[in-house]
Automatic annotation (TrEMBL):
Any single Pfam family the record assigns to this protein: PadR
Protein species of origin: Aurantimicrobium photophilum
Annotated signal peptide: none
Residue ranges occupied by any Transcription regulator PadR N-terminal domain in the UniProt entry: 7-80
InterPro entries, A to Z: Tscrpt_reg_PadR_N, WH-like_DNA-bd_sf, WH_DNA-bd_sf
Recorded superkingdom: Bacteria
Protein name in UniProt: Transcriptional regulator PadR-like family protein
Length: 194
């Protein structure tokens, strides 16, 4: 997957300025495909040049202008084609699990810090993803609300179900990583008491 398809996914809702798109991106798609503004803005310009987006200048403030992007017919078709392609999986690059495989080289207190930081990271993600799932279940997620407004009522159940499914998977992953870190901490304890 590339950034362009994540951007196209958000832009299927409505035209947005780069700023608005970046804000909504960070609140939604970034949970599964993270990208900083330094990648988003150049990709938007590239996508416009390739005809996937239509850009227009819109007023901003008393004398300013912003670029607003709308998905073009070509962009919709590219997104639809991408959605129907099989996923190309990549070999894993996971620094936490790589370090875990060699924790015997770390000082016990440093190994404990590594595992506690891993647990804290996934605990924060778990809280965020759980709050997003609550927004989905209560239909208060801003992007979901906009998506439902432009979707056919017959598709509403499907739209909500797939968003729910995604966050349930993220939550399950976070819970598993927390359990894994706890198990590592237990291992450290068992070696310290042995």
């Amino acid at each position: 997957m590339s950034l362009r398809y994540a951007l196209l996914a958000v832009l299927t809702v409505e035209p947005m300025t780069g700023y608005d798109l970046s804000k909504l991106f960070q609140q939604s798609v970034a949970h599964v495909w993270n990208a900083p503004d330094s990648q988003i803005y150049p990709e938007l310009r590239k996508m416009e040049a390739e005809g996937l987006l239509e850009g227009s200048d819109v007023p901003w403030g008393p004398r300013g202008r912003k670029r607003q992007y709308a998905i073009s017919d070509e962009g919709r078709e590219a997104f639809r084609l991408w959605m129907n392609e099989p996923i190309g999986y990549f070999l894993e690059r996971d620094p936490a699990h790589l370090k875990a495989a060699y924790l015997e080289w770390a000082e016990p207190e440093n190994a404990r810090v590594i595992l506690n930081e891993h647990k804290a990271h996934f605990t924060a993600l778990l809280q965020d993803w759980t709050s997003r799932l609550i927004e989905i279940n209560t239909l208060t997620n801003p992007l979901l609300v906009k998506r439902l407004e432009i979707s056919s009522p017959k598709d509403h159940q499907k739209v909500v179900a797939f968003k729910r499914y995604t966050y349930e998977g993220l939550i399950a992953r976070a819970e598993q990583e927390i359990l894994w870190a706890d198990r590592g901490l237990e291992l450290l304890d068992s070696f310290e008491t042995a």
